[in-house]
Target: YdhG-like domain-containing protein
Amino acid sequence: MPENYEEKISYGMPTFHFHKNIIHFANFKNHIGIYPGPKAIVAFKDQLTDYKTSIGAIQLPVDQPLPVQLIKKIVQYNLQNA
Model:
């Protein structure tokens, strides 16, 4: 994240913000929801085939390792498009 990014609560979720909301996170019983926005979902659709997605949301099952490198790529994409 850039040096001057902001951590805040937006839509009731922890959020990284840099000129706009970059990504939101939320924990649920069976998944972790990450919310990078619809443009990121479209841009990474080929890499998200193992996960349930909807407009602007990705569900990561809690019983599987987090795809850290993919999340980093999505965050970088959103930063470049902020």
